[in-house]
Design goal:
alpha/beta; Immunoglobulin-like; Rossmann fold; 3 domains; 6-stranded mixed β-sheet; 4-stranded antiparallel β-sheet; 8 helices; 23 strands
Length: 456
C-alpha cells in the first residue's frame, strides 16, 4: 500500500482542566513499486532507421534505469531493490535478449551502451523475446516499455504477440521515436495497453526523449500519494492555539477547531514521511478520558485510505465541593392584568444590613480515599490593624476516588457580615470599604496512625 503510515499522537496523556498539549500528525508514503515489485523489460529499436536517435535513446534508457533504482529502495545504489527487476531486449532484423531480468544497474547500462544500429525492424520478434523473459509463476507485476518508430519492415504481425502479452497480464507502454521513415502511430496504439492515450507517448525529437522516459519511469513506480488534502476537525472540548509549519506541504488554520494540511506529493521516488504539529487547549467543562478527534477527512489523487485512530487524553478539573446550598427560592405566579397583587411569600430568616462574602479555596495534592477537615477563620481589620472575629466554619471535604492525588477546590464558603459590625467607618452608612483576613487550617481525617501497643 503506498500510504505506509498515518498516525495522530498526543504529547501528553493527561492534563489539568484548561491545559494544553501538542497534536502530532504523521503521514508516510512510498512508491507503489516498493511494496508491489515489478518486472520491466526495455524493448529498444536498434534498426538502421534509428541510427541518428540511438545516442539519445541510450541516455534516456539510463535515466529510466536510475529512477527505477532510486524508487525501489530510496537511493541510487546501483541495485534495483524491493524485488523488482529490469531486462533489456533490442531488435532489428531479429530480437536479442541482451540481459535477463536482473537487478544490476551497471549490467543494464552496459547492455544498453553496447547497442549498434543497423538492419530492418522486426516488432514481432521483439515482443516474442520480451514475453519470454517473464516468469509466468512470478507474482511480480509485468511491464514492457518499447521505444520504436512502429514501422515494421521484417517478421510477422506484431499485434498477435502484443495481444497475447496483454492477455497474460503484461502492461505495454510504447514511446514513439521518429526514424528515417516517420512514425506509425496507428501500430503503436494497437500494440499498447488501453486506453492508448495513457500508454503511448510520442517524442517529437531526441531532446524530448529523456523527459518522456523519466515521466514514464515515475508513472510505473506510482508515487505513494499526490494532491493530498487533509482536514482535521477536533472535538468541541478543545481549540487549536497555534500551528507549526509542517515538514512537507502547507498547513492552514481554518478556524479554532479545523486545520487543513495540503501536500503536493509524498513518496514519489522513495519512502518518506511528513509531520505536522499543532497545539491544542482544553476549553470544555467536561473532564475524564476525552477524544481529541471529531473527524479527519483525507483525500488524494490515488484514492488512498488512511486511519488516524482515536487519540484520547485524560482531563482532570479537580473535585469541587459546595458546602452551603443557595437559599430556597419562592415561586411567585402573577395571573391576569392586575395592577396590584399581594402574595404571601412565606417566612424568611431575618438578616441585618450587610454583605455576604463567598470564599473559594484549593487544597492541593489531596490523596484518594481520604477525607479532609477544613477550618476557615475570618477576621475584620480596623485602621490600627486590630482584628475582630467575624466567624469560623469547619467543613468535612469528602474523599475523592481519582487514581492519584489531585487538587480539591472548595467553593462558596459564605460569611454574613452585617454593617453594624463595620470597624472601618460609620456603621450607619452602607458600602464602606472593609478589610478582612482569612485563615485556613486543613488536615486529613482518615490518617493511618494508630498507637503502639505491647504487641507491636
Amino acid at each position: 500500500m503506498p500510504i505506509t503510515r498515518s498516525t495522530k499522537e498526543l504529547s501528553a496523556t493527561a492534563i489539568s482542566c484548561g491545559g494544553s498539549f501538542d497534536v502530532i500528525l504523521t503521514l508516510g508514503a512510498e512508491p507503489d513499486i516498493t511494496s508491489d515489485p515489478t518486472d520491466i523489460v526495455l524493448i529498444l529499436d536498434r534498426s538502421g532507421s534509428m541510427e541518428q536517435s540511438l545516442p539519445a535513446l541510450k541516455n534516456a534508457a539510463d535515466v529510466f534505469i536510475d529512477i527505477i533504482d532510486e524508487s525501489t529502495d530510496g537511493v541510487q545504489d546501483g541495485t534495483i531493490g524491493g524485488g523488482s527487476r529490469i531486462g533489456v531486449v533490442s531488435f532489428s532484423d531479429t530480437a536479442t535478449q541482451d540481459t535477463q531480468l536482473i537487478t544490476s544497474v551497471a549490467a543494464l547500462k552496459a547492455a544498453v551502451d553496447a547497442l549498434d544500429a543497423g538492419g530492418s525492424t522486426n516488432h514481432e520478434d521483439a515482443f516474442t523475446k520480451a514475453l519470454d523473459l517473464f516468469d509466468p509463476q512470478s507474482a511480480n507485476a509485468k511491464v514492457m516499455v518499447m521505444v520504436t518508430d512502429g514501422v515494421t519492415t521484417a517478421g510477422g504481425d506484431a499485434n498477435t504477440i502484443a495481444t497475447a502479452a496483454k492477455a497474460a497480464g503484461v502492461t505495454i507502454y510504447i514511446i514513439g521515436l521518429s526514424g528515417n521513415g516517420g512514425i506509425d502511430e496507428t501500430a503503436l496504439r494497437q500494440w499498447s495497453s488501453q486506453p492508448s492515450a495513457q500508454f503511448v507517448s510520442i517524442a517529437p525529437s531526441d531532446t524530448e526523449l529523456e523527459a518522456i522516459f523519466g515521466d514514464l519511469a515515475r508513472t510505473i513506480t506510482s508515487p505513494g500519494a499526490t494532491n493530498i488534502v487533509l482536514n482535521d476537525f477536533i472535538s468541541d472540548d478543545f481549540r487549536i492555539l497555534s500551528v507549526t509549519a509542517p515538514s512537507k506541504g502547507t498547513a492552514t488554520l481554518v478556524n479554532e477547531r479545523q486545520i487543513r494540511w495540503t501536500i503536493p506529493e509524498l513518496g514519489a521516488t522513495q519512502a518518506e514521511e511528513a509531520v505536522l504539529r499543532f497545539t491544542v487547549e482544553h476549553v470544555g467543562v467536561v473532564e475524564g478520558l476525552l477524544s481529541v478527534n471529531e473527524s479527519v477527512d483525507y483525500d488524494d489523487a490515488q484514492g488512498n485510505t488512511v486511519d488516524f485512530g482515536d487519540p484520547q487524553i485524560q482531563v482532570t478539573c479537580g473535585t469541587v465541593v459546595i458546602p452551603e446550598p443557595c437559599p430556597v427560592p419562592v415561586d411567585v405566579t402573577i395571573e391576569g392584568c392586575e395592577d396590584e397583587i399581594e402574595i404571601d411569600a412565606g417566612e424568611v430568616l431575618l438578616e441585618s444590613l450587610g454583605r455576604i462574602v463567598k470564599l473559594d479555596v484549593t487544597i492541593p495534592n489531596v490523596c484518594p480515599g481520604r477525607r479532609v477537615a477544613l477550618a476557615v477563620i475570618l477576621t475584620e481589620v480596623d485602621d490600627m490593624g486590630n482584628e475582630s472575629r467575624r466567624g469560623m466554619k469547619t467543613l468535612v471535604i469528602p474523599a475523592h476516588d481519582a487514581p492519584s492525588c489531585r487538587d480539591v477546590t472548595v467553593r462558596c464558603i459564605r460569611f454574613v457580615l452585617p454593617e453594624e459590625l463595620d470597624v472601618a467607618g460609620d456603621p450607619v452608612r452602607l458600602c464602606d470599604e472593609r478589610q478582612f483576613r482569612v485563615r485556613f487550617i486543613a488536615n486529613y481525617i482518615d490518617a493511618g496512625f494508630t498507637c503502639c501497643t505491647l504487641d507491636d
